[in-house]
């Protein structure tokens, strides 16, 4: 499989995808017909136009999957697929409703390049359980695409030692996840991404990632770190620590 999994699509002070544009355009085939999935936001047309404005100057043709009466046919006629960010629950619900969850999974496993950002990166993991989002809708299942066998937490935020907020930090929430599930979680900070190609995976981008595994302290992964061994993960969900 050929995957580009971005933590975020918009970086503070920069335009949409601008912080990763060179990586995105080199990842996508030349003059690609890109199927864009805008279901994580309510306004599909405006969202698609934003992606077009960012990518079409580079020769990429962006086609909103919602613009075709048959989204599965639109996917089949594309050279790559991009699932954008927004609310992960709304996104997954729409993917299930349209049949795209299974169709995208099969196409990507068959070689179609897959790009995700934020909620779209959540979709690449086995389940929705490590999203940061509020469940504004109820999908029929938490099962996502399972393109990688471990979990990802986009927009990972480090604990702020000066914060007076008493709710759980992101680190505490991921620790709670590991108390109930024996599955590694890769925390991708803003400006970072995961690149997977031909069975090899690397942390890339401007900032290091953070890896959470049951029974060990979180570990920093510098940009360029080879994390291919995570692709051999055998996830164990609903397996409480004893």
TrEMBL record:
Q: Does the keyword Cell inner membrane apply?
A: no
Question: Which InterPro entries would you find in this protein's record?
Answer: Class_I_gatase-like, Peptidase_S51
Q: Which GO terms describe its molecular function?
A: dipeptidase activity
Name the CDD domains on file: GAT1_Peptidase_E
Q: Where are the transmembrane segments?
A: none
Superkingdom in the source lineage: Bacteria
Instruction: Cite the entry's keywords alphabetically.
Output: Dipeptidase, Hydrolase, Protease, Serine protease
What's its EC?
3.4.13.21
What PANTHER family does the record point to?
ALPHA-ASPARTYL DIPEPTIDASE (PTHR20842:SF0), PROTEASE S51 ALPHA-ASPARTYL DIPEPTIDASE (PTHR20842)
* Similarity-based family: Belongs to the peptidase S51 family.
Q: What is the protein named?
A: Dipeptidase PepE
Originating organism: Streptomyces halstedii
């Amino acid at each position: 499989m050929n995957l580009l999994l971005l933590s975020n699509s918009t970086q503070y002070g920069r335009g949409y995808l601008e912080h990763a544009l060179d990586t995105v355009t080199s990842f996508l085939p030349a003059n690609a017909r890109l199927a864009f999935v805008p279901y994580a936001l309510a306004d599909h047309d405006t969202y698609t136009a934003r992606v077009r404005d960012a990518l079409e100057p580079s020769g990429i043709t962006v086609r909103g999957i919602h613009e075709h009466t048959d989204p599965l046919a639109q996917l089949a006629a594309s050279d790559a697929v991009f699932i954008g960010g927004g609310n992960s629950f709304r996104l997954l619900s729409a993917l299930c409703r349209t049949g795209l969850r299974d169709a995208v999974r099969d196409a990507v496993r068959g070689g179609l390049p897959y790009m995700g950002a934020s909620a779209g990166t959540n979709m690449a993991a086995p389940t929705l359980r490590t999203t940061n989002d509020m469940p504004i809708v109820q999908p029929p299942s938490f099962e996502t695409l399972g393109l990688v066998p471990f979990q990802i937490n986009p927009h990972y935020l480090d604990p702020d030692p000066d914060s007076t907020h008493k709710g759980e930090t992101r680190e505490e929430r991921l620790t709670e996840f590991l108390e109930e599930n024996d599955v590694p979680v890769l925390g991708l900070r803003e400006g970072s991404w995961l690149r997977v190609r031909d069975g090899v995976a690397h942390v890339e981008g401007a900032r290091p990632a953070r890896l959470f595994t049951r029974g060990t302290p979180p570990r920093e992964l510098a940009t360029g770190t080879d994390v291919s061994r995570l692709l051999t993960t055998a996830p164990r969900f609903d397996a409480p620590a004893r």
